[in-house]
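Structure tokens please, single chain.
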Amino acid sequence: MRKIIIPIVFMHLISCSSQEKSPATGSFSTEGKQVYVYTTADSTAYRLSLIDTLGFIDKAQPFEKEISVFIDPDQTYQTYVGIGAALTDASAETFAKLPASARQEFLTAHFDKQNGIGYTIARTNINSCDFSSDMYTYLKDGDKELKTFSIEHDLKYKIPLIKEAMKAAGGKLNLFASPWSPPAWMKDNNNMLQGGKLKPEFYDSWAMYYTKFIKAYEKEGVPLWAITIQNEPMAKQTWESCIYTAEEERDFLKNHLGPVMYKEGLKDKKIIVWDHNRDMIYQRALTYFKDPEASKYIWGIGFHWYEDWSGGLPMFDNIKRVHEAFPDKNLFFTEGCAESFDSSRYGAWVLGEEYGRSLINDFNNGMVGFTDWNILLDETGGPNHVKNFCFAPVHADTRTGKLIYTNAYYYIGHFSKFIQQGAKRIGSSASRSQLLTTAFKNPDGSIVVVVMNQSGIESPYYLWVNGKAVEAIAKPHSINTCIIK
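Here you go.
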């Protein structure tokens, strides 16, 4: 036995010694590359500001006392789809009240890749939602055959904004649409508000409703990329809402909506299920994806961040659980915002940090794309017909015609401006808990590393890649994007 053990131990010591002397290697080379550091930081004037251009030095083994962010460009994960926000009635009505110069500023700020933050995704509502000035549907009461279907309501504000956004984004925007409620007469509570359920006798009519919406929008020059089946299907709200259990949503999809979409020539449109919080996402995923007849119609599962309504913390690990169980399905963030609007808190730094924390954790757990809630709201946190006023990253004071940028806009921009569609997430890890990080390799070969300092402590750190490193600084309550190219 001794003759066997001694050689193994000896070889292990040689291996360890060799590892200590040789830096990690990989196919990605830092040779000739620089690191461009963009920063947004509390108590400074930095807002997506280029503050440093750094060159790599040899750094074989960082020490324990040195803070490091380790990057592995050779370890790849999910493909990035994009980032954007919802173009709701509230956003469109607020946009229409702005002078032409402010409207152009807004469009450039959000959809221009060079001079803005380059949104590539947008969401809109089918029928009214809480962020509408009124309740509406697209047909007359009792019209089960949908003969009176018309999107005339949306032609005044919403579609003009979507078209302007598409133009500012270079002609293409991945737009998806979500219903908050079917028409009241299709539901068992005869009310678009306060939950209720879709009556079984209207399943086919409601399935056809989505296709009518898609085709009507496309006739106006607004193509749809995807739909979600129901916004927040487990929430009885004071605004437009409709309840589906997991089994009800699954069966509506596989027996009605999926077949109707295929029959109407819309099989290329993505279908997203759940569209609610992280808390119950694993149980919903099990129900949808373990049924092959339902699963074949599903591109991905959507989620929100409001599970802390009960007093708990964000449940990021639930996203990881779904990704581990169903790696072929896309995890897509469909809504999030800071609630309880208060105009005295426009400058609150926690607004942006909530976005940064969510984006980094969810990307690291398998998320492919992120959609903010209202892209623009007015000085009241609305308009909203049920007084559910909220924050947006950008507000418009319609009295003065000025735009107000919260730091949330910049935090989102640290991702959306630099990560290219089709990028692959790569390995990244921080050696201190105050730093959160995620990283991507773009199709053009550049590396994007996001480092968020959620503490009040300035943290110098090494950005380390295959035995080479640059030394950067994470200012207190800041977010950095480091571009390696």
